[in-house]
């Protein structure tokens, strides 16, 4: 029991903090907010005035009918009240129109800023962040949860001020008209307050469960759209459809649970409102019978009472909106508050002069604490050296080269480029000096030229085509009707795996980096194409430090230095010839390729 109380207190404190942050986002646009609130208050005042005008008109009419006279003298007050009513109604319509325009600007500017912040934050996150995040969840929070907040800024902030003024105004007006009727109205307010608190406590966890399950269904959809070829290849459509339907049903169940909460609350509030309305009308009628209240004012009391009960009911709807917004805001702020593990140094140093001298000093690394991937790695790579990294799958080759551009930071030791610790360097300048071709090639839904120039958007067409020629992209690009302006489709779906890798190589070459990293970059091309690419790369790699992860002996033999990685440690290093003279894993690797019929000269084996 004490645990539950502590958790409840923490939740309330958190809710207050989140609510303050939601409101703080409106501060830059307080001019729009002030205008919206002012117009909302003006509409409230005018709407409070209308029942009094109608009630006065009825009183004048009844007085005229009871007096038996129907001439200009008796009708003139009625005409005056009706003219005032038309004027007030016209003012309400005008102010309401202006208010709607202002509020669209207000909420959309806030949400646009918030989406920009989220997008910048997500793109600025470290690779380790995405290792533990679902794509569907990030998309759902950036789009769905931000859209929920749109309702908050419209319904709660501005409409909330308008509603509060109508409630206070209605009680105040009743108090001025007849304090006894106002006392009857005030008796029902505590009932509303208790109901609102109970309602809020019930809704918050339900909204949280619903958004979490919605994340899950979005993730399933995202995975199956991206992996549709795998799903179809293995005939898994029925199972994946069933998995998605199960998640969607879970979302539906949570919505039904929320709907039950709504259904339980709203009729109860309506019932309380109707009892309150009857009580106030009864009090007004009694006062009219006593002769202390004009008969026409019974209508005014009815309208003000209805405003009071309706707007108390609106607060119930706002309570639901607030709870839903708090859940969505918590999820959005969770992204914004997650610090990036890899970030710009406090006082970054510029990239030093040099040609790419790389040193690994006692480097240790692991993706998770207590699970080392690399241990005691020491390497000294002179500038301009072509390094081949060889080793079995999972030995740590890709992890090693991902430390160079600071996709991850080592747990121990340091990495130097031209004498400078990479953790002290300007992050943007560091990555601009490293061209990276990933093992899993990703292309954007754009043209061939735009994908090649992704790292250098201002590149001239001639430079783009030169990089494409070196990576042998021109061999298939020129066959397309639109050449380099051909769209490759989402994720480069219109190209083969080998063609996508060649585009990725051209993209890296165009950057003209100090250090070039090819993570199994020619794995998806045939041996003949690989030889052609390697011949072209030989010119590019001359006097440029290059790291190549390769599983083909023909690629490894070209390297100036071969580094053999096994179990996260460097077990051999040297030239192809010197390592072949040793009894070790490298010679086993070459001999295995020869026995498998890979393009290796028999003398090498």
> Any idea of the CATH class of the domain at 19-337?
Mainly Alpha
Structural class: alpha/beta
**Total count of helical runs of at least 4 residues:** 20
Assembly status: single chain
CATH architectural arrangement of the domain at 19-337:
Up-down Bundle
* Superfamily (CATH H level) name of the domain at 19-337: ABC transporter type 1, transmembrane domain
Instruction: Give the helix proportion (percent range).
Output: 55-70%
Could you tell me the mean pLDDT?
A: 80
Distance separating the two termini: 73 Å
CATH fold category name of the domain at 19-337: ABC transporter transmembrane region fold
Strand content: 5-15%
H/E element order: HHHHHHHHHHEEEHEEHEHHHHEHEHEEHH
Task: Report the principal-axis shape.
Answer: elongated
- Poorly predicted regions are 1-13, 596-603
Overview of this protein structure:
The chain has 605 residues and is an alpha/beta fold. Helix content is 64%, strand content 9%. The protein has helices spanning 2-24, 30-67, 72-123, 127-131, 135-177, 179-186, 189-226, 228-233, 237-290, 297-337, 397-402, 427-432, 448-452, 461-470, 474-477, 497-510, 527-541, 553-556, 576-580, 585-595, and strands at 358-365, 374-381, 386-390, 412-417, 420-421, 434-437, 515-519, 545-549, 561-566, 569-574. The strands form 2 sheets. Strands 6-7-8-3-9-10 form a 6-stranded mixed beta sheet. A 4-stranded antiparallel beta sheet has the order 2-1-4-5, with no helix packed on it. Strand 9 and strand 10 (569-574) form a beta hairpin. The protein starts with a helix and ends in a 10-residue tail after the last helix. The relative contact order is 0.08.
